[in-house]
Structures are given as C-alpha cells and as structure tokens.
Amino acid sequence: MSLSLQEYQNLLYGKLTACKGQFDAYLSENGYKLDFNTELNYVYQIVMSGLNVEYSFPYTPVESVISSFLKAAKIGLSLCPTEQLCFLKTEYSESSGQYVTQLGLGYKGILKLAYRSGKVKQINANVFYEKDTFQYNGVNSKVTHTTTVLSKAMRGQLAGGYCQTELIDGSFKTTVMPPEEILAIEEQGKVMGNEAWLSVHVDQMREKTLIKRHWKTLCPCIYRDSVMNDPMLFDDQDCQHSSNQQAYEEQFESAYSREAY
C-alpha cells in the first residue's frame, strides 16, 4: 500500500460512500432490504482488519473491494460477520498479476439464496461410510442411503458424501464427492487453524463443504441469466467443478450404481 494509513482510509471511505446510488438501485431493483450505512461499516471494518497482513484487503485494488461490496448488494446478502452469509476474500488474479478482493458465499448464504428462489423444497447434505448402504443414481435422481447403526465407529471409514436438492416440481439435483476430496479440504481447514475440523462436529463441517460444492450444480437450475451465476461467487478451493467433477460423478455412478450391487 503506497498511501499513508490516513490517505487509504479516506480513499476507501470515499469510494464506498460514492457507490450508495448503485447500492440502493440494486436493492430497489430486486426488492432486497439492506441498510447502506450498516453494510458500509461492515466492509470498512473487514478491510481495515487486514492492515499489515500480507496480500490482505488493503493491498488489493480498492476497485475490487467496491465491486465485491456492490455484488453483495446485488444478490441481497449482508456482509455481517456473525450472519456468515457471504464474506470478502483475496485471491491472486492471473490476468492482472496482483491480489484482488472478491466476494465469497458461505453455506448459510447459499441456503438462503436457494430457498429464496422459490424453486427449492428441500436440501439435504450427508456423508456416508463404508458399511452404509449407498447407491448413486445420477445427477438428476435421489440417492439411496441407509444405515442400520448410528455409531460412526461401527460404520467404517468415510466413503464419500452427497448433497441433493428436491425442487418444487418434484425433480432432484444431486452432487457427490469422493472421500479423498472431502479429506483434502478437511486438511486445508486444519492447516488454516479452523478448530471445528478437529472437533466432534467434523461431519457437520463436511456437510457444509458438500453444500458449497452442490451450489455449482444447483444454481444454474434455479437462477438463470443473473449475477448468481458469476463464477467469482464460488469458492474455487471447495468448488472445483467442470471436467474434474464430471469425472468424480462418473466414478460414483460406476462404483455405487444399482448395477454395482
């Protein structure tokens, strides 16, 4: 950051204040209710918390901060840290050769967006173990998952996970993840100091990961031609889709399909 602290604070506050018109226009256009001054304060505090932290928000282009702030308004989600609907993050941009601020979605934000669409009846995320009965029936079908015991110790090793959505029209969308990928994300969380991955709530953390992965499958089905389909809204570390995801789904269809039993 080449500016002095006071200069940067003035720049950031001025840029945020100047976008009030666009912020309010997004809310009016979509019927969302957020308080501009409250959200501005959240963003300001979040950005300034990164002072003296390498590659953090104050060291990214201020335009990327403003863009992320407005994107949150456009999808109608608060950046309140305690609500955990969405958040700011920094990522390296290959095109610009520098770190930029981007908007990410938390699992609570994903659930809010999904149910707000009016097209979702129910979302269910779960992990399954080696001794469970599990059958993957394809991306457009409901899985079959049963177990005769509740004790994880008696169900064997983690064998995978899934997140499925039942839509209002009765159809299903299903996303699966192999155990290797779930555990890799789990290790990432541990390295970053997230103690929840070391607690008795580890399966709930896995389910949150599955919901985030599922959003890439679900979002295009319930939101079309909207900002919700912006790839920047997806946590790339948790949502590696495209050819890799297709390969995983083909593996599951082979290993856990009806013909495999």
Which strand order do you get reading across the main beta sheet? 3-6-7
Shape: globular
- Oligomer description: single chain
Cα end-to-end separation: 60 Å
Figure out the total of helices.
8
What is the compact description of this entry?
It is built from eight helices and seven strands. By secondary structure, it is an alpha+beta fold.
Feature tags:
single chain, two-stranded antiparallel sheet, 7 strands, 43% helix, globular
Report on the architecture of this protein.
By secondary structure, the chain is of the alpha+beta class. The chain has two domains: 5-105, no CATH class; 110-260, no CATH class. It has helices spanning 5-18, 20-30, 36-48, 62-75, 107-116, 179-191, 202-222, 242-256; strands spanning 86-93, 98-105, 120-129, 133-135, 144-146, 158-167, 172-177. It has a three-stranded antiparallel beta sheet. A two-stranded antiparallel ribbon has the order 1-2. Strands 4-5 form a two-stranded antiparallel ribbon. Strand 4 (133-135) and strand 5 (144-146) form a beta hairpin. The radius of gyration is 20 Å and the shape is globular. The model is unreliable at 238-261 (pLDDT under 50).
